[in-house]
Amino acid sequence: MSEDSWSAMQLKLAVWSALLLAVRAEQTCDYARYGVVPDVVATAPSVQLDVTFSSGEAAHCGNELSPESTLSPPKVQAPVDPAPFYTLLHVNPDAPLVAPYLHWLEVDIPGSGLRQGDISAGSTEATYRPPQPFPGAGPQRYVYLVYRQPARSAGDSLATDEETELRYFFNVTGYAASRRLEGPVAGNFFLEQLG
Predict the structure, then answer these.
(1) What is the pLDDT of residue 185?
(2) Which CATH number is associated with domain 3-192?
């Protein structure tokens, strides 16, 4: 294959990927139907966050995923403004005794990286903890939210694996207000349960 043919094929693939991402972004979730609004946030995000796990399973507005498929952090992607920084939150508003529970918190994610599905340039405030639904409690909601930051954060870490109690009773709205975050600008959620 010639270099020109290869370049043309790469360009077509990039255009199709961008179009697919734009179409997915316009398909917003029904957050009120599942109680994400008002249980987690007061207003629903206007853009759908693409959340895809290495297992190939993906969050899609309340679909049910298996616990085995969500053991590792997912790839997250959204058609956001590439210039500013963003914060990614993953919470479970249904965790027995400690709800809402913070599963993951990344800050200072460049918009250009989030657009490409690469959040590695961000900073981890709370490492990823996989969903662990309580046996017999029925489906639990696992919510991903992206907020726009007014500026790069000061770098103070919220929680580590040793500071589990900081993840308990996590107030998404309070956290967003304390950091002057805008949004949520993107989001998605899925359900998970154990027999």
Answers:
(1) 97
(2) 3.90.280.10
